[in-house]
Amino acid sequence: MQPTRTEGPDYYHKVVDCQWACPAHTPVPEYIRLIADGRYDDAYMINWKSNVFPGVLGRTCDRPCEPACRRGRVEEEPVAICRLKRVAADNKSDVGPLMPPVAAKRNGKRVALVGAGPASLTVARDLAPLGYELVLFDGEPRSGGMIRSQIPRFRLPEEVIDEEVGYVTRLGGVELRLGQRIESLKGLLSEGFDAVFVGSGAPRGRDLDIPGRKEAAANVHVGIDWLSSVSFGHIEKIGRRVIVLGGGNTAMDCCRTSRRLGGQEVKVVVRSGFEEMKASPWEKEDAIHEDIPILNFRVPKAFTHENGRLTGVTFEIVRAEFDDKGRRSLVPSGEPDEHHECDDVLVAVGQENAFPWIERDIGLEFDRWDMPEVNPVTFESTRKGVFFGGDAAFGPKNIIWAVAHGHDAAVSIHRHCMGEDVHDRPPPGFSLVSQKMGIHEWSYDNDISLDLRHRVPMLDKAEALKNVRVEVELGFDSRLGFAEAQRCLNCDVQTVFADNLCIECDACVDICPVDCITFTEDGEEADLRARLKAPAVNLDQDLLVSGALATGRVMVKDEDVCLHCGLCAERCPTGAWDMQRFTLEMTHADQMGGAA
Fold this sequence. Notes:
Blueprint: H1 10-15, H2 17-21, H3 28-36, H4 40-51, H5 54-60, H6 65-68, H7 81-91, E1 110-114, H8 118-127, E2 133-138, H9 146-149, H10 158-169, E3 174-178, H11 185-189, E4 195-198, E5 204-205, E6 220-222, H12 223-231, E7 241-245, H13 249-260, E8 265-269, H14 281-289, E9 294-295, E10 298-306, E11 309-322, E12 328-332, E13 338-341, E14 344-347, E15 351-352, E16 386-388, H15 391-394, H16 399-417, E17 429-434, E18 436-438, E19 441-442, H17 461-464, H18 478-485, E20 493-497, H19 507-511, E21 517-520, H20 525-531, E22 543-545, E23 554-558, H21 567-571, E24 577-585
Parallel strand pairs: 1-2, 1-4, 2-3, 4-16, 6-14, 7-8, 7-14, 8-9
Antiparallel strand pairs: 5-15, 10-11, 11-12, 11-13, 17-24, 18-19, 20-24, 21-23, 22-23
């Protein structure tokens, strides 16, 4: 097997599993160390640079980093990465002076941003310091997009949204045109903007066209529209008996909001099994904690009604059946239909994009799903100078994906406005710096302890259900935040091996607590994986393979199980092993310069 190439950023980036899994590639271990050190302002600004909305995401992120967390391979649960982000946001001081200064001069370029949600705000955050004039359009009276309209206040207080959206809109050069919905892209293009970014989200909730829908329309509500009406104060109550249809996070928000608006008997009914539901596990747990039953394998057949009033929903009972390729289908179980009485139904069975305002004769092509054709690297459409991001680009995901799209689109918009090729994208920068402070001392805490994940304190359930605007999660205080931060294994402090210094004494093999280091004869990767001291079965994780050593053997380390404890480097008599901190600098437009 060829020696592992570690020259570029990707190899060591991938070893930092949480950062690799994060769409915005937030340097998670770095900000967690700062939290443990009580440096909350610095931790917040690292997050702000990467994911723009630390306080928002510290409460609402879908947490793709946590399933990847190395601590989850040692214990049952990963580090509470998401909630530690909130610790930095809750405990910071005034970070206004740490924000980028207003550009000293404008660069003469104007960019229109359609939709004031997380994707557009991220583009604005990256382009404003470069002197752009940014015009942000949104049909709603307040900015924030789905952050404000679709996430209930008991999960995300309004003041957190106002604060973090305000950091962006106060950067200079950002003009807000709220309450101004764009009705024609052709008309917008005629206003002479140098580029247009569409971050309008996926604003249309799917409906259910089943018998009784029209007759019972007064009490059958589309979930995301209903949540938006609650957020903006247009709806303040709901019936005593509520059925929520759907198994995603929107359905969980709908059922929990219903409990706070007068719903006493609220149930969620899902066509799939419990494990197949799209809702995050913690969202389901929170709903169950609030006494909301989840009924699975039930498909709605009809809304029942009497004299124009909804009376309930009839469901067909189904079961899962798998073919010889493991593909699942839902088939009738043969059991009798069920009828569940209710006063209101919330339909949360998915979201879809709607682009009636984009003309089809302006050189912007759409695919068979009526989605714009968007380059997944540059985020440019087939119409030069028109870019998409967030849910508007590739369909509904979550806030952190919208932020990642915004960063990448901003790079493209900047290059486009500078007359450069949008495909020519500077690679991320990186560095490796030794953490050695002495013969047996490191600049980071490398003690490996078996600490269980700390539970986030919650408001008493009886109190939480009284008010739709009272936050239910109280967050970690500084003491619990420190304890949870100490669970991080510092995966960004890499084990770096120098072939020319190794004397093959096997001291590192003897001391490694997880048997991840092996000195052996070379071979093909599949052969090597099977011959290691502990077989390397996770093919998604790389092997660190040295060049040929003095005896002809190679050193092989399985990155999957390494704890980054540094014992190999402490024990090594020649310094062949070193612990070096890996820092990744993602390419953002505001770091590129190039004002016209």
